[in-house]
Amino acid sequence: xxxxxxxxxxxxxxxxxxxxxxxxxxxxxxxxxxxxxxxxxxxxxxxxxxxxxxxxxxxxxxxxxxxxxxxxxxxxxxxxxxxxxxxxxxxxxxxxxxxxxxxxxxxxxxxxxxxxxxxxxxxxxxxxxxxxxxxxxxxxxxxxxxxxxxxxxxxxxxxxxxxxxxxxxxxxxxxxxxxxxxxxxxxxxxxxxxxxxxxxxxxxxxxxxxxxxxxxxxxxxxxxxxxxxxxxxxxxxxxxxxxxxxxxxxxxxxxxxxxxxxxxxxxxxxxxxxxxxxxxxxxxxxxxxxxxxxxxxxxxxxxxxxxxxxxxxxxxxxxxxxxxxxxxxxxxxxxxxxxxxxxxxxxxxxxxxxxxxxxxxxxxxxxxxxxxxxxxxxxxxxxxxxxxxxxxxxxxxxxxxxxxxxxxxxxxxxxxxxxx
Length: 420
Prior knowledge:
The protein is of the alpha+beta class. It has 10 helices and 17 strands. A hairpin with a 2-residue loop joins β6 and β7.
């Protein structure tokens, strides 16, 4: 087994580049009261001791976690928070707020949006309760909810079954990638990391998906492919990356930990006249083959081997170099666009108070998908300062008769992660 804490290994990549920052915006139907939010957020955060930790370096150059009894920081204003600093009491989690918005910032090494939703729901429940509302706590981890082994589980590599997946895709690496846009962003570190908030009524999209043999992921993949055909008429091949959560495959269905891998679907210009239904059917069939548990077991073993090799490096810099050079996150199949759907979240008694939920990550041309009781909330993420891609995406929605609303381009203000 790897030597250090399961949650610690992506820290080595973070030391070299800010690739694992996550920020989730929850829009409430009323303005946020910071005087109530601060103690409520502090109280709720104590329910998650596995998040209440700071980072240190041991004598062998390995990253370790140390328990922290300081409160989570609650900061006024929509700002780019610096996690791991005095500003956040050394924690890799923080809350900030502005107007009707509460922003939840965290480092991806602990959890993804799915695992973070437990903390977010607990904080919202505590805040609303302390504000005088009677909110049903069913499905919410309050400070009195016992911590279980299942929510902290990690895979037992030695116990994973052996098995070969049925079929295998040989993905090509000739998909269109927006290299010039990435380079332009690298040359201008003060440029915008933007997103457009797009809402699609849940009932309308699910009705459309059922009519076109689709799920939210497959329908969005098909629509985004059609967007690329419009925005990039000279290009011929586009690969879609779709996030797949494999916790259940490796025996940890309830864990807070982030265990995801990418599925890929490749499209080409020869599919230009295909209907969304046909594109969705093909997309779903390719996703289905890539959701085999055998692929998850293989992925888990490969991640474990990389972690062992990180342990074998002699010092912190060497560990960080090895982690970056062998990162399974950044050495996958190059994708033209990506989709990440948190999945169904039971908001319960919180639903009546929430007007929108948007996830922001370090990415370009990626759709992060959340859902309230009424809407799918899409963060249409871009590095551009114009409406290229969004304009074409909305044209496709119009052509398909999918209702939507969209806001102005906004800056994500992604949190920075500062490590020793």
